[in-house]
Amino acid sequence: MITKDQLIEMGKLGKPHGLKGEISFFFNSYAWDDVEADYLIVECDGLFVPFFLEEYRFKNDEEAFLKIKRIDNDTQASELGGCTVYLEKRQLPEDYVAQQAENGELDIDFYIGYNIQLSNGTNVGVIDGVDDSTVNELFCIVTPAGDEVLIPASDDYILEVDDNNKTIIMELPEGLLDLND
């Protein structure tokens, strides 16, 4: 079973394009242009379902048209409209994370599933999502006790990122975690 921590968000499907099953795809990730994938993962009713691509073509820098295998008409394509599209992290090239981080282009959603630890060794919890509804992006953390806390996803607080162990070491301001109570 595919879980969200194995995925990186690419964008959303839009409306059908034409009558033969093509669908618009609004991508919000730099990875879309960097990775050649045979399939995409689409979130359908809370499940992550792989869909195989026949072909795609770019309309512009933010939109492409996808032809998905076994989606053969506009009615079938319209059922996927509004669904979120992902790639599995394992589909990314080995050096993708390092290159994107170096260029400042790594999507913050990549870190979903990473464990947050403080510099003193305290386990804060696992990143379950990212709140990017404001200028300051926040990690949505599920603590070992099952509570949800929000902490700034700021480079100012990140000391180290260990991609092999999926861990981020942070130094947070005194009392910040207490604000979530």
Structure commentary:
This protein is mostly beta strands. The protein folds into 2 domains: 4-103, Beta Barrel (Elongation Factor Tu (Ef-tu), domain 3), CATH 2.40.30.60; 113-180, Roll (SH3 type barrels), CATH 2.30.30. The chain contains 3 helices and 12 strands, in the order ββαβββαβαββββββ. The strands form 2 sheets. The protein has a 6-stranded antiparallel barrel with strand order 1-2-5-4-3-6. It has a 6-stranded mixed beta sheet with strand order 10-9-8-7-12-11, with no helix packed on it. A hairpin with a 4-residue loop joins strand 4 (47-58) and strand 5 (63-68). The longest helix has 8 residues, at 96-103. The protein is elongated, with a radius of gyration of 18 Å. The relative contact order is 0.16.
